[in-house]
């Protein structure tokens, strides 16, 4: 293996790595080799205090650096971890011909809940399908998600019921931050995830399905987020546009309305007050947290 002294200092992804920095990189790779590349990159960012202006770790940039150092022969990375879903449908649907895949003339009206499957849709063909469905049938459409995120599809009898996605939370959200502070949580960015899209397809007409799918997804995402990002989420948040929706399915799934946004939208590095304020719903991802939220709001 090549010595780090041969390349130090080296500038990668806008950061100059000294000999000491590279020694830290080597130590973290060796120490956390069995935990995977994402975990290694996060530990390196913590050790080097390599963060974005908003305080988030620059772990994606760090993984690029690690791949480059691996190509130079100064470190040996573990093989990439491949995400597979044990609950994926037995037959992968064709997604190159959308009109053949979906039969919207045949409504789905009876779905035994025990037969619903939730399918991981990230960095695979299912993500292409997720993107298409959300772009076509969600009122906000599909936008490229920057940062941490996980997507799912819901299936029954090899037919798609809907889609849901979770991402990093809103950076600043006063009602959420005040409530979590009262619960003793001072790091909402690492403990909260945002339900940024939720869709049930228009041909699916099943009573109380939405609240059940929310419960199914929030239970699954805790496991997958912890495995994928080495962070265990404690809370989920979402925003509901009151001119279009009441948030009924969230209320039925025990999400709690905690306030409203100020209507600011980020454009580049600037926030503009150009959106309709939305209702903020919060959900504790375990029973104890849900009970604590209810107790605080009743005070």
Description of the molecule:
With 299 residues, the protein is α+β, with helices and mostly antiparallel strands. The chain has two domains: 69 residues, no CATH class; 201 residues, Gcn5-related N-acetyltransferase (GNAT) (Aminopeptidase, 3-Layer(aba) Sandwich). The protein contains ten helices and eleven strands. A seven-stranded mixed sheet has the order 3-4-5-6-7-11-8, with helices on both faces. Helix 1 runs antiparallel to helix 2 and helix 2 packs across helix 3. About 6% of the residues have low confidence.
What spatial form do the alpha-carbon principal axes imply?
Answer: globular
Briefly note the structural class of the backbone.
alpha+beta
Q: What fraction of residues sit in β-strands? A: 15-25%
End-to-end C-alpha gap: 62 Å
Spans of 5+ residues with little confidence (pLDDT < 50)? 83-96, 267-271
- Portion in helices: 25-40%
Q: What is the domain total for the residues?
A: 2
Just name the CATH architecture of the largest domain.
3-Layer(aba) Sandwich
Query: Might you state the CATH topology name of the largest domain?
Result: Aminopeptidase
CATH C-level class of the largest domain: Alpha Beta
Could you report the average pLDDT, rounded to the nearest whole number? 87
What letter string, H or E per element, gives the SSE order? EEHHHHEHEEHHEHEHEEEEH
Strand order of the largest sheet: 3-4-5-6-7-11-8
Radius of gyration over all CA atoms, rounded? 21 Å
- Number of E-type strands: 11
Number of helices: 10
